[in-house]
Amino acid sequence: MNAPAGLITRKSALSAEETVERLEREVREKGLTVFAKIDHSGGAREAGLSLRFTQLLLFGNPKGGTPLMQSRQTIGIDLPLRMLVWQDERDDVFVSCDDPAWLAARHGVSDRAEVVAALSKALDALIAIVALR
Q1: Who is most buried in 13, 20, 53, 54, counting CB within 10 A?
Q2: Which residues contact 38 (CB under 8 A, 6 or more apart)?
Q3: pLDDT tens track for 72-127
């Protein structure tokens, strides 16, 4: 798979539905806020279109995102954090998210390395739990 720059993608060992359920549960258990869950494939179905399973979860914590926005407010367009659970044409399930270091570089945030590292570590751990890897 040829992933776009700044995108982290890992295969999940679970079904798409189980992956989303586990992701949402883990996010909440870590004390993060789930701001939205967007069911792209459900929306497509309602519009009479087909789309393999595709759901987006937006989540975060002001203590993580605010310091980045204090450095460069434009990073707010990429926050809160998000993870996309999607299924490919072979029915394999994947979890994708933006790399916090890539987001920081995109917005020119260079004075919050510790925050970026903490977000990267948290997302890596979350993906590992969700994808059972």
Answers
A1: 20
A2: 55, 56, 57, 58
A3: 999 999 999 999 999 999 999 999 999 999 999 999 999 999 999 999 999 999 99
**pLDDT tens profile 20-54:** 999 999 999 999 999 999 999 999 999 999 999 99
In a domain, residue 53? The reply is yes
Residue 28 lies in domain:
7-130
- Domain containing residue 106: CATH number: 3.30.310.70
Q: How far apart (Å, rounded) are the C-alpha atoms in residues 79 and 63?
A: 12
φ, ψ at 5 (rounded to 5°): -55, 135
Residue type, 16: A
Residue with tokens 């994708």: 96
| Stated length of the chain | 133
Q: Is 0.85 topped by the overall pTM?
A: yes
Distance, in Å, from the CA atom of 101 to the CA atom of 6, rounded to the nearest integer, reads 8
Domain contains 80:
yes
